[in-house]
Specification:
Elements (H helix, E strand, L loop, with lengths): L3 H11 L4 E4 L6 H10 L3 E4 L3 H15 L3 E5 L3 H15 L4 E7 L15 H4 L6 E4 L8 H13 L2 E7 H4 L22 H12 L4 E5 L7 H11 L3 E3 L4 H4 L6 E4 L6 H8 L3 E5 L14 E6 L13 E4 L2 H8 L10 H20 L11 H11 L5 E4 L3 H9 L7 E4 L8 H12 L5 E6 H6 L3 H7 L5 E6 L4 H10 L13 H7 L3 E5 L5 H10 L4 E6 L13 H16 L3 H15 L1
Parallel strand pairs: 1-2, 1-3, 3-4, 4-6, 5-6, 7-8, 7-10, 8-9, 10-11, 11-12, 13-14, 13-15, 15-16, 16-18, 17-18
Length: about 575
Amino acid sequence: MTTVAENMVRTLRANGIDRVYGIPGDSLNGFTDALRKDGAIRWVHVRHEESAAFAAAADAALTGDLAVVAGSCGPGNLHLVNGLYDANRSRVPVLAIAAHIPTVEIGTGYFQETHPQELFRESSVYVEYVADPTQMPRLMEIAMRAAIEQRGVAVLVIPGDVALAEIADDRAVVIPRTNPVIIPSPAELEQAATLLNSTRKVTILAGAGVEGAHDEVVALADRLAAPIVHALRGKEHIEYDNPFDVGMTGLLGFASGFRAMEAADVLLVLGSDFPYTQFYPERATTIQVDIRGSQLGRRHPLDLGLVGDVKATVGALLPRLAEKSDRSHLDDAVAHYRKTRAKLDELAVPARGKAPIHPQYLARLIDEAAASDAIFTADVGSPTVWAARYFSMTERRRLIGSFTHGSMANAIMHAIGAQTARPDQQVIALAGDGGLAMMLGELITITQNRLPVKVVVVNNSSLNFVELEMKAAGFVTYGTDLDNPDFAAVASALGIFARRVERSEDLLDAVAEVLAHDGPALLDVVTERQELSMPPSVSAEQVKGFALYAIRTVMSGRGDELLDLAKANWRQLF
């Protein structure tokens, strides 16, 4: 007798799946026992289902292939939700096996009962309840195809008794990913070419959709004499080997990226869902290319929207474009970028005396010491700022984060999946102290699975980016203090090689030692709490907010905080 669960495992193996992330539970027994019997698929045991989902998201992001996660009924399902949201919004293919309570008890308010179909509706492209063994393996095949073709999360909700039932059809279908080539119509391409040929100043905004189209986009920029600004998710795909790169825009970006877009007559948006409307130019003609037609014009009014994948669309557009002889817009943008880059690099220096370490200096040292094919993960908040500004990409480096969903504590969880998927590459997690503390148990996951992840903690004893947001809005910082342990001592107690650094003079050697360690390692770095990460454009509301923050801080008897703020940021202000 072959059970439904055994057929599920057989189908996964036939499709090249060799690992499943999760935590076992009684409602999952049929599935986990089928994995045990099969022996070809590894169970990657984590300490929290949320981590399993984030790990699967990073795995899928790196490989481009389907990753699989499993959670037990009720609370186990609930723990999966945040990570699955991240995977779905990052558009990576993940299959989630969500166990359910016994079929006969559904609807009775049974122990651990939830309503998984409703629970996963917003965090998936497909979710279905397996009520009867005869629905399988058909629903398994539909779910896998949905995840692969729509690049999102597919969830199968299956009660434990159904998973243990005998299956009538024991087929195991291989579901390869299709590779269609989608380009706009000739008339639409001509319309785009007319707009681009008739203007002097073109700027390109490149997002995650330029993945695999690096050379084509660079060639397009050369033809149009267009600077290339990148959104955060486009950084890893377009920044390297790019003489037309002028940095990033947005709240975490550079002045040069913002300026290149503001100066444009035509903004050409390639594969980007950049969400911050205040950073789009008000007067420029805007052309957008996206593989998903529903994305067109969501963020900014369009003059022309084109449905197509970036690589094929740019390839079809290039022959229609005249080479621009006037390169003054490009030259000006590149020159401004060099100045902006130099100013940023001037901040990445050792702190004087016994002052806390500047996080920019930490990020610069990591970038210089990391392998040419390193995989970086970064926590949401200030670690993402420093990664975006100081981690340089190569053709083989990757940068993974919760850049769309914006979840706290993602760095260590993403690193687990990244290192599992790429055991021979260096994986460096730039974690905030708040993020690491939130998922501290996943350090045990790293040791238990013998993953040589390198965790670098930006330890500023605060929810640092939240404090910055409070200051910009005019609020006195409140509720953001973190009374941290010695993270290096904690890591050492868990069997991880660890160092703690409090002075700049000790940092260079510590970074080298931790990154060179043969096995998991953690570097706890005490950094400047009051360091400001200035956006490329400061609004009048933010200036007003900082003024209100200063007044309210003094009036609340915390004027010393303002002195610390000025002392920490004099390099940026003067």
